[in-house]
Amino acid sequence: MTDKPFHLLTAKAILETDAAFIYIIEGKGSAATGDEPIEVNAGDFMALTQNSLPHCMHNSSAEDLFYLSQVDDI
Questions:
Q1: How far, in Å, are 33, 36, 42, 43 from residue 49 at the CA level?
Q2: Domain 2-72 class?
Q3: Domain spans of the chain?
Q4: Beta bridge pairs of residue 28
Q5: Minimal CA–CA distance to 35: which of 59, 21, 53?
């Protein structure tokens, strides 16, 4: 997926499947679970479970943010 500069990709979402992951391929931005934003950079990996807090991704930089996202029902 590609997130354009200074774009909020998703509003906070609650995972309705069993598991998901996000891998940052290129760029930087921020991810939030609950109310705690964290900086994400190329090479970062996030794993989410069905009981995870609501989450979202935000490209807070002037460059594109490229990442891979997979959602699975286990």
A1: 12, 17, 22, 20
A2: mainly beta
A3: 2-72
A4: 41
A5: 53
DSSP state, 47?
E
Length of the chain: 74
* Chain segment 12-54, per-residue pLDDT in tens: 555 566 678 889 999 999 888 777 888 999 999 988 877 777 7
- CA neighbor of 22 nearest in space, from 36, 37, 51, 42: 42
- Give long-range contacts, CB 8 A cutoff, 24+ apart: 41-45: 45/21
pLDDT per position as a tens digit, 53-66: 777 788 888 888 88
Compute how many other C-beta atoms are within 10 angstroms of the C-beta atom of residue 26.
Answer: 13
